[in-house]
Structures are given as structure tokens and as C-alpha cells.
Design goal:
250 residues, globular, binds zinc ion, Fatty_acid_desaturase_CarF
Length: 250
């Protein structure tokens, strides 16, 4: 019998929200691209700095994906953000189900925070007179906003059982997050949060960034990290949820 993801059904409101989140991030991407095209003749950034900015953007996009993933896994619950969070919880108990959701369901999780944070940063950058620095920063914002729109797509490539040779080579070269690298997160949900290329996982896990941030958040707010994890594991592993049944708060 084919596997059915638990939260495939979406209400009209949820469908509209996921598309609006993605559209907002696309607007940010297009505005960044427009700035880069329009300002290139006057700034004329040297190609070596273009490469540095692109690599910095690709690293920071990975870090941003990790930050969003950490927040979702550690502090949010379905009551706060509904179906999007439920799908991420399901991914921990049933990893292969993630391949059965549509593009907008997944892209909106990265697109929404990107539209707000990167959109804000790009707006502030554009307010300054154009220079090599503002141009390089805009490249960084452009790369982050683009990668966050496709962030879950990058992640999903690590879950595909069959992958073409060019992708396997790119994953082996760490240009894209590899299955071996990402599966450490599925064995231990407190590490390897970054899912675009995995570059940022090395410093973040080496310096225990996420657990230090958790202690800071707990000390300032009193909230416990992953407070509902056991409850979700119990529900999704079959004890409390029936596939196709209305979900809580649905
Ligand atoms: Zn996770
Ligand atoms: Zn995964």
C-alpha cells in the first residue's frame, strides 16, 4: 500500500498563506536582482569579490536554514504555526514522507522568514548610496533569499533514494547537503540543523551554538527546548494519530 503523508490535506487558508509566503520571498529575490543589474555599471565590483560575496551568501544561507530549522524543531508547536510545523514533526518520525508534499508546502517554511529578515536587510542596504560594500551585501541577500525559497528542496535531495550522478558528485563535494551528513540530524535532533550545503554545521556543532542558544533562551524565558517532542513522537508513531483523520487544531 502506498504511503500517505499525514498532513497532505490543506485548507484554502493554508494554501493561500503558503503561496503568499513564497510570493513575498520571490519579490525580495527580484528586487535584489534588479538592484544588482541596475547598479553594476556604476559599482563594477571586481569578479574576485563577486565570488567572495557568492560564497559568503551560500554559507550564510546554510546558517539561516539551520537557524530556522532549530527554531522550528526546538521552540514552535503546531498550535503556533499549524500545518507547517506538523509537517516538520512528521519528518522526524517518518523521514521519507517529506518527498510526498508539494513545493509550496515546503518552500513556505523557508520563504516566510527569508521575506521578513532578508527583505528587511535588503531594504536597509538599498537606502545607502551604492558602493562596492552595498553591492556585495546585495549579492549576499540575493543568494540567501533564493536558497531559502528552495531550502527544503536542497534538504529533500539528501532524502532521495535514487539520485543522478551529477547530484551525487555535488553532494560528495559538499556543494549540496549530502545524505550521510544530514542523517546525523535524524539520529540526533540537536545537531546538523543546516540543510542547504551543511557548511555551517561544522562551526555551529563544533562550538555547540544551538545548545548554548537553548540555555540562553531557557534562562531568559523559562521555556524548555523540545518540550512537546515526546508527545509528537507518541502521536505520529501511531499511538494517537490515524492517517487521514482530522488533525488537532485542524
Ligand atoms: Zn529537524
Ligand atoms: Zn531530513
Amino acid at each position: 500500500m502506498p504511503t500517505i503523508p499525514f498532513f497532505k490535506h490543506a485548507t484554502l487558508r493554508e494554501i493561500i498563506v503558503t503561496r503568499l509566503c513564497c510570493a513575498a520571498d520571490v519579490v525580495v529575490i527580484l528586487c535584489c536582482a534588479g538592484y544588482l543589474v541596475a547598479r553594476y555599471p556604476e559599482v563594477g565590483l571586481h569578479w574576485s569579490w563577486l565570488i567572495v560575496a557568492l560564497l559568503a551568501g551560500y554559507f550564510l544561507a546554510d546558517l539561516f536554514s539551520g537557524l530556522v530549522h532549530w527554531v522550528v524543531d526546538t521552540w514552535l508547536d503546531e498550535g503556533m504555526l499549524g500545518r507547517g510545523i506538523a509537517i516538520t514533526r512528521e519528518h522526524h518520525t517518518h523521514p521519507s514522507h517529506v518527498l510526498l508534499y508539494g513545493f509550496f508546502d515546503q518552500a513556505s517554511l523557508g520563504a516566510a522568514p527569508s521575506a521578513v529578515v532578508v527583505g528587511g536587510a535588503a531594504t536597509v542596504t538599498a537606502l545607502f548610496p551604492a558602493s562596492a560594500l552595498t553591492y556585495a551585501l546585495m549579492i549576499v541577500w540575493f543568494v540567501i533569499a533564493t536558497c531559502m525559497l528552495f531550502g527544503m528542496g536542497f534538504h529533500n535531495l539528501a532524502h532521495r533514494p535514487v539520485r543522478p550522478l551529477p547530484l551525487r558528485v555535488a553532494q560528495r563535494l559538499h556543494l549540496v547537503c549530502s545524505p550521510e551528513h544530514h542523517w546525523r540530524h535524524h539520529r540526533d535532533h540537536t545537531i546538523r540543523y543546516c540543510v542547504i550545503n551543511g557548511w555551517a554545521n561544522y562551526p555551529c556543532d563544533r562550538f555547540r551554538l544551538w545548545s548554548r542558544l537553548e540555555r540562553l533562551v531557557t534562562a531568559t524565558t523559562g521555556c524548555a527546548p523540545r518540550a512537546d517532542d515526546a508527545e509528537w513522537q507518541h502521536k505520529l508513531n501511531g499511538a494517537g494519530i490515524v492517517v487521514g483523520s482530522p488533525r488537532p487544531n485542524g
